[in-house]
Specification:
- With about 350 residues, the protein is mainly α.
- The chain has one domain: Hydantoin permease (Orthogonal Bundle), CATH 1.10.4160.10.
- Helix content is about 80%, strand content about 0%.
- The protein contains 15 helices and no strands.
Length: about 350
């Protein structure tokens, strides 16, 4: 029972790390999958397989190599020199992406709660600082609460859409997009999110001693991400193409289900952003702590201050600038993870 609970904790942490602002609003799913019509179900299946395979592989490599941070993993994948350069580039982009997360939290407070933008930023930063004092345990426990609620909301989206007149539209919708664009989309999406997730999955892989727990945690986590992708795609397809006009497409669906679901949905958007932000700040703190002889709390505060400064540019502005730049790096990184001869390393490691 203890091992089963641990597996679920890792799976929930994996899901909570991948699910961020873009996923919660539905924009990521709409742009990467739903707009491609009937092919989206197949590409979601492909993306799910990549999440199961590469997410699990990442944690097991971290476990077997003793990688404490994503810098150690990158040195294993690319060699010492190239790995260091990729790590610093990844750090810069992680700071940029988490600035987007922080800006997204501020936008939730403005658009849905009628509060000031800075209130959302400051509450997120203060909450993150307090939680990180408890280390990886706090991240595992937090996701064990938030992610089951997200999965329940996904089930509610499915059950409410079944009776919709356009429920079967997910298998009949057509697209004018080029096939290359359709099939490249799940690769970009999975690679992008796996690069972000390494900041959390590597420390988890290093600190969990049981390989089977890690393996099954990765498998169930990847399946959980795929289920949530499919649920959101199913719900949004039923309202295509009209739903494409909304900046927060999933919000338009939640609002149709009454004020109670709407309130839960708004809370979950913030919590999804918050859990991802906490986990990424933790990973970046570990990485920088290998180079800076200062207290981890000071590193955490410095990173959050930088994210706070960048978040002043706003959610949509940061999103449009940083995400396309990150896409090309993500594909290159994921390709190296795929080709890594991890089995050969394990064999050599056992013989030492």
């Amino acid at each position: 029972m203890k091992q089963a609970f641990r597996v679920l904790q890792i799976a929930f942490t994996y899901i909570g790390t991948v699910v961020g602002a873009g996923f919660a609003t539905g924009q990521e799913i709409l742009q990467f999958f739903t707009q491609y019509g009937k092919w989206a179900t197949v590409t979601i299946g492909l993306s799910t397989m990549l999440f199961v395979w590469l997410g699990t592989k990442m944690m097991l490599i971290a476990h077997d190599t003793g990688s404490r941070s994503y810098e150690d993993l990158n040195k294993h994948l690319f060699g010492h020199k190239a790995g260091k350069w990729i790590t610093w580039l990844t750090l810069l982009i992680l700071i940029g992406v988490n600035s987007v997360m922080l800006a997204g939290a501020g936008s939730v407070f403005v658009e849905h709660l009628g509060l000031h933008y800075q209130t959302g930023l400051i509450l997120t930063i203060v909450g993150t600082y307090l939680l990180l004092g408890r280390g990886i345990k706090a991240i595992l426990q937090m996701n064990s609460i938030v992610v089951p609620m997200m999965l329940l909301l996904s089930l509610l989206m499915i059950t409410s859409t079944i009776h919709h007149p356009g429920a079967l539209r997910f298998i009949t919708l057509t697209t004018d997009a080029h096939p290359v664009q359709v099939w490249l989309s799940p690769l970009l999406y999975s690679s992008f999110n796996l690069v972000l997730a390494q900041a959390v999955l590597v420390p988890v892989g290093n600190q969990i001693r049981n390989r089977n727990v890690l393996k099954w945690g990765g498998v169930f986590g990847g399946i959980g991400v795929g289920f949530m992708l499919l649920a959101a795609h199913f719900a949004m397809s039923a309202q295509m193409p009209g739903i494409m006009q909304f900046e927060i497409p999933m919000g338009s669906i939640a609002f149709q289900l009454g004020w109670a679901v709407q309130s839960v949905y708004v809370t979950l958007i913030f919590m999804e952003i918050f859990t991802t932000f906490v986990a990424d700040i933790y990973g970046m703190t570990l990485q920088l702590g290998q180079h800076l002889q200062v207290h981890p709390r000071l590193i955490t505060l410095t990173i959050m201050l930088l994210c706070y400064s960048l978040s002043q540019f706003g959610f949509s502005s940061l999103l449009s600038i940083l995400y396309p730049i990150f896409g090309s790096l993500a594909l290159f990184w994921a390709g190296r993870l795929v080709t890594d001869r991890w089995g050969s390393f394990r064999a050599r490691h056992k013989n030492l």
